[in-house]
Write a structure and sequence with these properties.
The chain has 131 residues and is of the alpha+beta class. The chain contains three helices and five strands. It has one domain.
Length: 131
């Protein structure tokens, strides 16, 4: 959980003592190797040995999608008030913030738990969008 956060929400309201919490996060990592073999016969001479071309392609994907909640003040959090869902200002009507592979590969995220990755991303990237 992050406290004493200064942010301007997508509706234009500015808060100087907000509390931000990760509501949910989903990290997906996948890799796939595709091997293609093409056999080609020389149409000018069918007695020749056929040629086989092999192609290997590797695909890797890694991203983390997270949703943030916020309370306008520490007092609102402490009093158990209902939080707001932070909408992504870069994506209309979307509450998801996606951390792509290029960002996740940065050493600052090494060894961090998923919630800690989301909070660091909020501090370093998302908060700059909320100024």
């Amino acid at each position: 959980m992050l406290t004493n956060v200064q942010l301007t929400d997508p509706q234009g309201q500015t808060f100087t003592d907000a509390v931000v919490r990760v509501k949910e996060a989903n990290r997906e990592s996948s890799s796939n190797t595709t091997t293609t073999e093409n056999l080609i016969t020389d149409a000018s001479d069918y007695t020749k040995e056929a040629t086989v071309n092999t192609d290997n392609r590797n695909y890797e994907n890694d991203y983390l999608r997270c949703v943030f909640l916020y309370w306008p003040t520490q007092a609102a959090f402490d009093e158990g008030r209902a939080p707001y869902i932070l909408m992504n200002p870069d994506s209309i009507n979307d509450q998801n913030f996606q951390i792509n592979r290029d960002e996740l590969e940065k050493s600052k995220y090494d060894g961090l738990a998923v919630e800690d990755v989301c909070e660091l991303y909020f501090t370093d990237v998302v908060s700059a969008l909320l100024v």
